[in-house]
Design goal:
The complex is a heterodimer of chains A (504) and B (155). Chain A is mainly alpha-helical and 504 residues long. Chain A has 22 helices and two strands. The N terminus of chain B is likely disordered. By secondary structure, chain B is an all-alpha fold. Classes of the chains: A mainly alpha (504), B mainly alpha (155).
Amino acid sequence: MDMLVQVLAGFQSALTPEALFYCFIGVTIGTLVGVLPGIGPLAAISLALPVTFYLDPTLALIMLAGIFYGAQYGGSTAAILLNIAGDASSAVTCLDGYPLSRQGRAGVALFVTTIASFIGGSVAILALIGLAPVLARLALQFGPAEYFSIMLLGLIAASTLSVGSPVKGLAMVLVGSVLGLVGMDVNSGQLRFTYGFMQLIDGVDLAVIAMGLFGLSEILTNVGRDRSKEKPISRVSLRSMIPTREDIRIATMPAMRGSLLGTAMGTLPGIGPTIASFMAYALEKRVSRTPERFGKGALEGVASPEAANNASVQAAFIPTLSLGIPGNAVMAVMLGAMMIHGVVPGPGFLNDQPEMFWGLVASFWIGNLMLLILNIPLIGIWVRILAIPYQLLYIIIVFFICVGVFSLRGSSFDIFLVLIFGVAGYLLTLFRYPLAPLLLGFILGPMIEQYFKRAMLIARGDITVFAMRPLSAVFLALALGLLVVTVVTFLRNRQSTILVAEEN
Amino acid sequence: MTEGSHAAGPARLNVGEIVAAVLLTLAGLYVAWEGTHFPLGTVVRMGPGFVPVALGLMLAGIGVLLTLTVARSPEPTPKFYVVPVAWVCSGLVAFGLLAERFGLVPATAAMVVLCALAERPVRLVPLALLIIGLSALGAIVFVEALKLPMSIVRW
């Protein structure tokens, strides 16, 4: 009963005009970046980060979260119409979405993906409402030792379970942690890696790193490439979106299965929307009586993965909001944004600021509702935006990067830093080093260090404390197991890849 | 022609991947070396040098592991596209150099022109519209409405 009151209070605060406005802005930007190939949700969130410094923390988080889940809706549009995967998670949607589009059924495919995404999002939000308080209560028993171990587990899971080489992922986590060292050491006051620059005393700004690695480097990887193969876009009318009764029958169960799978996957650290949607696709193909239809325009091949990736994105908030442990790079940025706004993520967040927590959760569902409207009646707008030539688009993005970074503290120094991170990110991408683990290491690395020191202080320097406390021991054992499995499979087949995702 | 032939395995040495992995190793060693300038402390009471040394050594270790394993990986060495990348970078440099001293509009104009040179052919009319549009957007939304700490034009 108590919780119901809190949930209702959450809806009350999410339904204020201001909250609705920023939620709308967030999901609109999200859909926009999801639709546009070559700019992902991480880039958009990092671009919006400086603007949110001027907002109330609840509104800021509502908007940033909206960008994240909104992008999952938009991602399917380019995949279905153009066979372009705007991000890795929509690569799966291309497999059957584009064949559907060539059969003249793009409208139905877009309709089904939107509804499936909505179902996925709603299921995950219900899981969030049910699970977060339980987890937060459990986490109240966590001491620094447990936090140290579970964060280490999250970090290792996120870097080794990502797409591509897990060892390169681990390397990037370490690079990110090293970047987290830049600036004044909180314990000794010593300046590390500042090279005499006063601007680096507080460390490198999260927004600067994120904009360099995910904004600028994406542009550098796309600019000046051959674009002669680009296809004209077919128009989508509202009438063409109406599915037949048979379509609905085919897509319903896959959407439900995808939602449940995505929710489960999203809750686990390290498993993002990409893996969730690949697994959902594989599952549908296995349970289907006609697996040969997959790849040739099977509606269940778009319904299930789209439900799964949206569900996993919403479910990723479960560990982030209840435990303060981000499972992926976007959640790490959200965590960073919360800390910038003075909100301490973790079990205390739910217990001390329930109105903010439930307001945020309620806004997720309202945002998903808005996305239904944005993506069905208004689909024509997004199709037209897809036609913006890249020659103009990348300049506009560079402009937002420049102004956003400059506005952090009115200093050109940060622009040059973004340039360095952008070029570094570009080179790392060329050699297939994943960037998301770097960001995760940057945010979690220093936190892990602090928890380690605190645990040592409490245990009076007894290092065995991590193995003696049962929960901590379980987390550490899992982390160690993951590491061993990674290295062994890596050595066995050199280029071990968990998933071979199609890169755009 | 005969000497090197026996070494030719199924795949040739992948120079690009090796260079990347070796650079990573060196970066790790550098971080560790830099860390030794600070007191190390012990695991229980870590000094400011402890974490840099530990992270640097781990990074170097992974770098060595990568160097050994990617040496014959079949991944193609990527193309660098130096020219378009350099144009975009020069656009950011120009914005950085001009924004503080001359304000938003001159910095935006210079940035747009330099960035546009990355994609050929350059079309002048959209370019001019872009400069006007972005300058107006920046001035109205960012400087006036959001009150970002920058001037529109400064002489």
